[in-house]
Amino acid sequence: MILVVISIYILVGLIPKWILKKDYETLCDNFSWKIPLFKLSGLLVSLSLAFILISIVTFSTKKQFIENKNAIYGLEFNTVMENLGFEDGMKIKSINDKAVNKISDIIPTIILEYDKSSVSIDKDGIESLITLDSKAKGQLLQSVNHDYIKPIMHEGDKYIKITTVNNDISDVFFRFKTLWNKAMNFINPSPKDVGGFMVFSAQTNVVGYAIYFSYTLILLGIVNLLPMPGFNIGNAIISTIEIKRRKYYNRKKKRIVGLISIVLVIIFLLSGL
Predict the structure, then answer these.
(1) Which of 100, 152, 162, 177 has the highest local Cβ count within 10 Å?
(2) The whole model's pTM is what?
(3) How confident is the model at residue 195 (pLDDT cuts 50, 70, 90)?
(4) Any idea which architecture 64-165 has in CATH?
């Protein structure tokens, strides 16, 4: 998947040269300010394509979830959650003073908080607070059993009410933000002990592949925000300096420095895995 995204970046970067041909050379000779913008084409196209893919996936599906308020008998927790202080029958009211509407949002909300997560709980009408630090979040992510929480059903109940609603634009931005945060955590893991929590489950359908492809586009887009030679922002900065001084740096040296920058970043990313 990453090779496909890299190919898209390379092709998009070459498109201005292919389309404009001699006009592109003329723009270079005239030190046109359009050249730095062309250097950003890969970054802009990749993030735009990721947003479009996420929009298509979001609007073509409906979301089903159990509302937190419908867990009237409280929640049942797995062993990992119990070791962190949670008990069966507790109700989760809020996380860091923000109400949680869906049961499925509880764990992601806890994990995606960069700092400590303060979970407000209620049991038998008594409210208390459970604080989870990076170590606790690491325990959650290292758990083999990901069935952390489920609503308690009363005897005789065959099912619990499931809410089905259409996705809207806010869901598109939420998914984009979630994938952005996952990509940022891959590049710079936070909390400290959470490391590689960005593992995606095996993709078995078109939606899964589209989401993973979008994630890869965003990941490469973030990397290209680095102000270093060889990356979109870095190349745009260098091009801007060249336009302003009306003199180009040695192309061969730029390519070598850019290649070294890319190799160093790849080594840095791999060392964090």
Answers:
(1) 100
(2) 0.65
(3) very low
(4) Roll (2.30)
